Amino acid sequence: MSHTPPEFRGRIFSDARSGFHAAPHRYHLYLSLSCPSCLRIAITHALLGLTDTVALTTLPAVPDGTGGGYAALHSAYTATRHGHTGPAVAPVLRDRWTGRVVSNHAQHILRDLATRFRDGDAPELYPSAAEAEITELGELFEEGINGAAQRAGEREAGTGAVEALLAALDRVEERLAEPGGPYLLGESITAADVHLWVTLVQLDTVHRWHLGADTVRRIAGHPWLWAYARRLLALPAFRDQLRLEEIHQRHHSRCRGLEAAGAAVQIIDWTAVEPAGSYV
C-alpha cells in the first residue's frame, strides 16, 4: 500500500508572539542535494550566510527510509503527526525546540529563509518590486523548461515538447542577451537566478539522458544561457552545493526510461570552474 507524504506548511514570522518566529538557532534544515528543490534551498541558505543561524544536515542522495522517505526524518514526522507510517520526505524545516516539522513545502521554506532570516548584508532574493516577475519566471522554468524536457524525454510525446522547451530557452536567452546586468533581473541576484540555475543543472545532468543528440545540440546552442550557468557556478554559494554524483545516483535509482543519444552530448562541464570575472 502506498502512502502520500503529508504536507506541512507552517510559516516563519517575525513576531515573537507567533508560533514559529525567526529565532536564531531554533530551526534545522534537512536536505538531499540530489533533489532540485533541496538544492535551491541549500543555495539560498548559502547566499544568505545562514550557516550559524539555521543548522543544515544533508541527507543521502537516494532515500533510505520507508516508502521513499528518509530514515533520519522519521522521528520528526511522527512527532508532528501521531501514528505517521508513510514516507518522511525532504526538504524539511524542523523546529529544534519541539522536534516537529515546521514545513516540507519548498516554496515556503525558500521564501521564509530569504525574508525572515536575511540580514542587511545579504542579497534581497525577493525584492518587492520584482515579486510578479519572479513568479512569472518560475512558471516558465517549471512548465516551459522542466515540464517540457520531461515530456520530450518520453518517446510517445512527439516533437511538440521539444519545440516548447526550445521556445522557453529562447525566451531566457533573449533576456540574458539584453544589456542591464549579469542576472535575470539586472545587477542583483534574486531567487529567479537560483531557480534558473538549478533548472539548467537538471536539464544537463538529468533530462539530457533521455533526449536525442540533435535536440541536445539545439539546447546547447544558447550561448548566453550557458555562459550564465558557468558564471554562477563560479560563485561558492552555487558551486559548493552541487553534488553531481549524487544527482546521478538519484536519477538512475528513480528513472525507468530508456537512455537516448543525448546522454553522450554534455552541454557544459559542471566540474570546471571559470573565473567569476566582472559578471559576479
Automatic annotation (TrEMBL):
Q: Spell out the InterPro entries in the cross-references.
A: Glutathione-S-Trfase_C-like, Glutathione-S-Trfase_C_sf, GST_Omega/GSH
Q: Where is the GST C-terminal domain?
A: 107-258
A Pfam family of the record is GST_C_2
Single annotated GO MF = glutathione transferase activity
Q: Which domain of life is it from?
A: Bacteria
For this record, an example GO cellular component is: cytoplasm
User: What name appears for this protein in its UniProt entry?
Assistant: Glutathione s-transferase
